[in-house]
Write a structure and sequence with these properties.
globular; single chain; mainly alpha; 83% helix
């Protein structure tokens, strides 16, 4: 009972601990997004004037691919967060320790495998994305992928801390790394003139600093699980739980981002000639960053709802979960309206953060007008996904992701490509169609499961 009272997720007020947990998550997501955003800002303002649009497009297109890879990692890491959260809620230290040991093994294999694949296929990905400069994009990808072990380690460590209810330490790690990245970007681009290579080197160096710092802190922080050499192995039952929870989430994130890659590829081909392609591609590269920033708040809702739900599933607090869900959905609606208004009316202002190029700003704002519809519903949809993740419905999350990406978003975008006069605004609306469909599917699934009384695990 004493341990439960010390955990604000399991007893006492509901909304305040959710808010206290979510704010550091929100800030950490913001600072992590700043890695690639700062890259684009520095390139957009200090790169060689003769190649600035090509460099912008290379960093934007390359970082889109890196975001897709990172989301695969974070999807699996979310599986660790959810499973760990359930053992923490049940106050099972031995089980939590085996979750950590299994997770370390899983992610070492993942990091090595992804590095090999991405280094080999970087030119292929750059070509498939119709990047205006395949050479620049390939260079950016290969340097960034050389640091995938650090990207993987950071996301796993952050997922572990969030699983135990601590969202402040990941914020500290990423905050210091972000400062390092900004400083190195200015040195490598403004002083050394390494341009695309410089920002890529800065990004992976900053991630390495973040990981080293986090390992030092872990050694000095009391934790509700044990870490030792004998525990670091594939524990039967525990590894499968992590993979069962994480693979559908990782695959769903991969499919979602793959559909955005298709949008990026179509956007890079809009316009009547090669000159227009460069301007539109540069504008959409800015949009890549802006849309990632707009997703920071919805993603924080998902992560917070998943951890809160998972811990209370472990503790058997059904009514507390429902109360938390109501609070989060009401907040999500308000956030969605605010984000939609920002994208609809503030696109040009936001684009100027990244570049002074008039043509790039025009095309970036054009896309955001259509994307505003996505912002309106996305926070509510991701809140529900966080809830389903925490309850263990990861297969449903995968299925709705498949439907949203392959039945709605990609077909709509490919259909739009065949019509004359299609603009980035139309692509933004096409993107939003899948999010609206996913929200409706989530609502329907929730009421069906609640009616059948099968939304929670049997032990609840």
């Amino acid at each position: 009972m004493e341990e439960t009272e010390k955990n604000p997720f399991l007893a006492g007020p509901v909304f305040k601990p959710l808010l206290n947990f979510m704010l550091p998550v929100l800030l950490a997501n913001f600072l992590q997004t700043m890695y690639s955003a700062v890259d684009l800002m520095v390139i957009g303002r200090f790169a060689n004037a003769d190649t600035i649009q090509l460099a912008n497009a290379a960093v934007g297109t390359g970082s889109m691919i890196m975001v897709m890879v990172t989301y695969v990692i974070t999807g699996l890491a979310m599986g660790t967060t959810v499973v760990l959260g359930q053992y923490i809620g049940a106050k099972d230290r031995n089980g939590a320790s085996k979750v950590i040991g299994s997770a370390i093994c899983i992610f070492v294999v993942l990091a090595v495998g992804l590095t090999v694949i991405m280094e080999i296929l970087a030119p292929t990905f750059a070509s498939l994305m119709n990047a205006p400069s395949v050479e620049m994009t390939t260079l950016y990808l290969r340097i960034c992928c050389g640091g995938l072990v650090f990207i993987t380690a950071y996301n796993v460590i952050s997922g572990i801390f969030r699983g135990i209810g601590n969202s402040k330490l990941p914020l500290l790690f990423v905050g210091i790394a972000c400062v390092v990245n900004i400083a190195l970007d200015l040195i490598t681009v403004c002083i050394l003139h390494w341009d695309v290579a410089g920002v890529a080197i800065s990004t992976i160096t900053a991630q390495a600093v973040s990981v080293i710092l986090s390992l030092v802190v872990i050694r000095k922080t009391p934790l509700p699980f044990d870490v030792s050499a004998k525990l670091i192995r594939f524990h039967a039952g525990f590894s499968s739980k992590i993979l069962k929870a994480g693979i559908p989430l990782a695959f769903q994130d991969l499919l979602t981002n793959l559909s955005f890659v298709v949008i990026n590829s179509v956007a890079n081909q809009l316009g009547p000639d090669a000159t227009a392609w460069a301007g539109i591609a540069s504008g959409y590269s800015v949009d890549n960053k802006l849309t990632v920033f707009t997703m920071i708040i919805p993603t924080a809702f998902l992560q917070s709802m998943a951890v809160f739900t998972a811990q209370n599933v472990g503790a058997g607090n059904r009514e507390r979960i429902q109360k938390g869900l109501r609070y989060m959905l009401m907040s999500a609606v308000c956030v969605g309206v605010g984000l939609a208004l920002l994208c609809e009316f503030g696109g040009s202002v936001m684009a100027r953060i990244f570049t002074n190029d008039t043509e790039t700003i025009y095309y970036a704002a054009q896309y955001l007008k259509g994307y505003a519809v996505d912002c309106l519903v996305c926070t509510s949809m991701l809140t529900l996904l966080g809830y389903f993740n925490g309850c263990g419905h990861s297969t449903f999350v995968l299925v709705q992701g498949l439907i949203g990406s392959f039945v709605v978003r990609i077909p709509v975008i490919l259909l739009l490509r065949n019509y004359d006069g299609v603009t980035l605004t139309h692509l933004g609306l096409g993107c939003a169609s899948a999010t609206v469909a996913s929200l409706l599917i989530c609502i329907g699934y929730y009421f069906i499961k609640m009616k059948k009384n099968t939304i929670y695990p049997a032990h609840m």
